[in-house]
Amino acid sequence: MKSVIVLGAGIVGVATAAHLQQRGWSVVLLDRKEPGRETSYVNAGIIQSEALCPYAMPHDWREIGNIALGRSNKVRCHLAALPRHLGPLLGYWWHSFPERYKRISETYAQIIACAAREHEVLIRQSNAGNLVRRDGFRILYRQQSVLESAVAAAESLRQAYGAKFSLMSPSDLKKAEPALADAGVGALHWVEPWAVLDPGALVSAYANLFTRLGGRIIRGDAQSLVKSGSGGWSIVAEDGPMEAEAAVVALGPWSPDLLKRFGYRFPMVYKRGYYRHYVGGSRLDLPLCDPANGYVLAPMAKGARITTGAELAAPGAKADFSQLVHAEQVAHKLIMLGRPLEPEPGFGTRPCMPDMLPVVSAAPRHRGLWLHFGHGHQGFTLGPATGRMLAELMNDEVSMINPLPYRAERYRHI
Length: 414
Description:
Layout: E1 3-7, H1 11-22, E2 26-31, E3 46-47, H2 61-68, E4 75-77, H3 82-95, H4 98-126, E5 132-133, E6 137-141, H5 144-161, E7 165-168, H6 170-176, E8 186-190, E9 194-196, H7 199-212, E10 216-219, E11 226-227, E12 233-237, E13 240-244, E14 246-249, H8 255-260, E15 269-279, E16 288-290, E17 295-300, E18 303-308, E19 310-312, H9 322-334, E20 339-340, E21 346-352, E22 359-362, E23 369-373, H10 379-394
Parallel strand pairs: 1-2, 1-14, 2-10, 4-19, 6-16, 14-23
Antiparallel strand pairs: 3-9, 5-9, 6-8, 7-8, 11-12, 12-13, 15-18, 15-19, 15-20, 15-21, 16-17, 17-18, 22-23
Helix pairs in contact: 1-7, 1-10, 4-7, 4-10
């Protein structure tokens, strides 16, 4: 029986472990925390089948200036963090030019198209259907010109990929969401995405499925990973050393730091996002995105959850809650938000590759070392799909998706 240690128990690592266990591997899943307690928990909880194009970097100098000067709540940038981000950001900017972005989006759409299907398999196997609603989410618009541009973009996705949406007038939105005090100029309702009432609980359900299949979850430090004398890989867990033939690095934003020890230099843009729950207020029916103010307000099991846009901050930097504070102020004008549940907001970090595609690949220079990270804003959506993809590669199966665009070797200087 083939053996593997999967490092990282977020949605990406858990899904990878489950797919490998189902293929007859002996799998140990290692993390310093319980499954789904990091970035997999800190999101809007939407499985986004409509997100067929990744988030591109703007080329409009006014928009870039607003970000640099802190005028945009979608993206905040701390000047002290720029030296660390500059190289990856330039790569991100370069890949966001229309021709390159078009090719990337065509590739990206292939994995997004598999996402809900692969989640559905794990949801059914883990008996987690009670955590999921399958009637979409809405995007509120405040300016007619912005709404018209959004409709045109949505129509392009409908024609290219069959993505389904409906246009809602202000009265339509107020009827669907009577708690709203302001319906703007209308909304788009993407009807096919799924809303998850507790993202952390869904990851935990997948992890429980993995253990029922025979897998093991252990606590330990991924940084202890070393090449073993027998040619495999070993780590030091809480209950002692452990060895396997293969290892998978699925540590999200912490992956590049670990891989530096093995001589790999992966560029990454680190996008921090903040969240908080609110209780005792009005409740929305479906998640609502307010792009003008850079946040999503979603009904969750614990209450209404606000999740913010992106903050470019150095890892380990002190939390800056200004994006969340702004989102709270705006959300209070939309609904009766209620009181904060947590004493202090939480945050997670989205690991974004410069070309907006995740790394799903064997390590180029180390036999038995596999790489699975860099999903950007869509790790929660994509984890089960790319988890299956990596398991197929490791098991010498024909992959359901062409794996070439996701190889580590696309970064020439790693």
